[in-house]
Amino acid sequence: MANTTTTILQQILHLLPEDQFESFVGQHKADRYVKKLTCWNQLTILLYAQASGKDSLGDIETGLIASGNRWYHLGLETAAKSTLARANKKRPYQIYESLFYEVLKKCQNLVPGTASFSFKNDLYALDSSTIDLCLALFPWAKFRTEKGAIKLHTLFNVRSQIPTLIIITEGKTNDILPAHEIDFSTFPKGTIFVFDRGYNDYSLLRKIKDAGHHFVIRLKKGAHIFRILEKNRKICGKGVLADETVAFGLEKAQKSYPYDLRLVTYHDDEHDETYEFLTDEFRLSALNIALVYKNRWQIELFFKWIKQHLQIKTFLGTSKNAVLTQIWIAMIYYLLLAWIKFQTKFTGSLHTLTVMFREVCLQPVQIINLLRLNLKTLQNALPRAVPQLSLF
Length: 392
Hints:
By secondary structure, the chain is an alpha+beta fold.
C-alpha cells in the first residue's frame, strides 16, 4: 500500500543533510533541555512557513492545526506560536547559516548552467539589497535617523542562478567591506566578477587580479583615468563607441593598481543609455564585455524574486537572531527549489514551482508527479499517494 503520509514538505525535508545539521546543533548545544520543539522541528516549521507563504506566528499555528494529523507526521509535538517565538529568539541563527552552506555544496556540484552567454568563463555578480525595517521594532538595525534596515550582500553565480555567498549586515554598512571578505583564491582561475560602480575600490580590483581572475565594473563618475593613446583598439561590434587602454591617474590608485586597464564605451539602444565599463580582460570582444555587464542584471532579478516570493519582508520576531534565522531558512528554501527545478528538468518557472508547492505543501503527493502537472490538473492529483522523491 502506498504511503499516504509522505507530504511535499516531508520530501523537501528529506533533501536536507540531517546528520550535518545535528552536528551544527551540537556545536551550539542548542537542543539542551529542549522538551518539545527541537532545532529540527523549528527548521521544519519555518520551512513550512516559507513553502505555504505564512507570514505570522498565528497563521503558522493555525495552518498546522488545520492540517489535521499531517503535522504529527512531520515529527512535531507542538505548533504553539509562543514556543516557536522563543526558539526563534534564542536558537543561534548560525546553525541555519551553516546548513545553508552545506546545502550549497550539493547545489554547486549538481546544478547545471542556465545563463545564455557565449563565453566559457565562470561569471559572478556581486551586489547588495536592502530590507527595510521599522526602527521602533528593530532598534538594533539602525540605518538612518528614523529608519532601520539590513543588507544582504550577495555573490551570485550567474551561470547556475544560485547565491554562493551571503553576508548580512546592518543597513549602514558600506558595500566594499563585505566584498573584501571574499576569498577569491577559492574560485577557478579566469573567473569574471562583475559589479556596479559602487564597488570601485582599487585594492579590491587588485585582489581579483592577483588571484588570477578578471573584473568588469561600471566606471564611477569623476574617476581619474588617462588614456594610453598608442594602445587603443579597433572599434568592433554594434553599440560599441570606444575600446581604449587606460590607467588610473591618482597616485594612490596607481600604487594599489599599477596595471593597464581597458575602457569599453557602449551605447544601449534599447534604453538609450551610454555605459563605460572598466575591465582587466583584454581577450574578450568589447561586445562581450558589454554582455558580461548586462548579465549583472541577473542578481537584481534574484533580489526582486526573493522579496516577492519568500517570507523575508515581514518577520516572525523582532530580535536580530529571529530575523537572521528566518532569512537563512528562506535562502535554504530557495536553494532547494532551484535544485529540484534543475534536477527534475522542470520546464516551468521557479515562480510556478513555488505556487504549486504553496498550494500542496502538506498534501501526500510525490514531487516528481506534481511537476508533470499544470495548474489546471493539479487538483486531480491531490488524493494520489506515492513514494517520496529522493535527491540527496
